[in-house]
Amino acid sequence: MKLNVYATPDSVSDKELKDKTAVIIDVLRATSTILAALANGCKEVIPAVEVEEVIAMSKNYEKDSFLLCGERNIQPVEGFHLSNSPLEYTEEQVSGKSLLMTTTNGTRAVRRAMDAKDVIICSLSNVDAVAEYLAEQEDDAAFICAGTDGQFSLDDIVTAGAVIHRLRDRVEHLDLGDLAVVSEYMYKQCADDLHKVIKHSLHYKRMMECGLADDIEYCLTLNAAPIVAVYKDGVIKKLDGVQA
Ligand code: MLT
């Protein structure tokens, strides 16, 4: 199985995604939030790039069947029901709802991958479920890191490494691209305490400055939302019957 890691969504071409499973990572916080919402019973998550797009989409939904969700530059969007904190996405809030979501980098990365054979959502909160799924599918995988404002983000790379490391026990032959090698190495450096490395990332520091230590703690908790979530035809849904 060939595994490549891409530091940002713009560093992968459509050609490279063809016939591959795209694994989208924005551990702080978009993919952690999407997975928390799906694990807590939301119907679906519809990722959008722009705030205006979310508002336009909402016109197609019955009142009370949807929530407007997301952030801009970490801050809640005025008039939206929920921000991008995974801790807000409780069963009580999201059960049965369609979540129309836009985030600065994460939802953009999901949309970028729409030409891949298969697209799944990954965070530290579902690393074992993702590794299990990839091992079963046996397709080559492209890990697409959302990054921060077009820049490489350490937290996403460590997350890719956590999945790659778990694939070692599950797949006989792994063929790693250079950044996949670095990702696994970085993960192994901090497997006992993920904060040790991730605390040096720009986004971790920004979140700490914004008083979001509890969100970071959740996002760095392994297998907190042990599901597989698939993006297909513009919609992210939980794959039934798959739980790590
Ligand atoms: C994003 O999509 O840029 C992030 O998830 C930002 C955040 O922490 O809210």
List keywords for this structure.
244 residues; alpha/beta; putative 2-phosphosulfolactate phosphatase; 5-stranded parallel beta sheet; 4-stranded mixed beta sheet; 11 helices; binds D-malate
Textual characterization of the structure:
- It is a single chain.
- With 244 residues, the protein is an alpha/beta fold.
- It has a single domain, classed as ComB-like (putative 2-phosphosulfolactate phosphatase, Alpha-Beta Complex), CATH 3.90.1560.10.
- It is built from eleven helices and eleven strands.
- It has helices at residues 14-17, 30-39, 51-58, 91-94, 106-112, 127-137, 154-167, 178-190, 195-198, 202-209, 213-219, and strands at 2-6, 21-25, 44-48, 66-72, 75-76, 98-102, 118-122, 141-145, 175-176, 227-232, 235-243.
- The strands form three sheets. It has a five-stranded parallel β-sheet, sandwiched between helices. Strands 3-6-4-5 form a four-stranded mixed β-sheet, with helices on both faces. Strands 10-11 form a two-stranded antiparallel sheet.
- The longest helix has 14 residues, at 154-167.
- The chain is globular.
- The two termini are 21 Å apart.
- The model has no long low-confidence stretch (mean pLDDT 96).
- Bound molecules: D-malate.
- D-malate binds at residues 26, 28-30, 71, 74, 84, 103-106, 146.
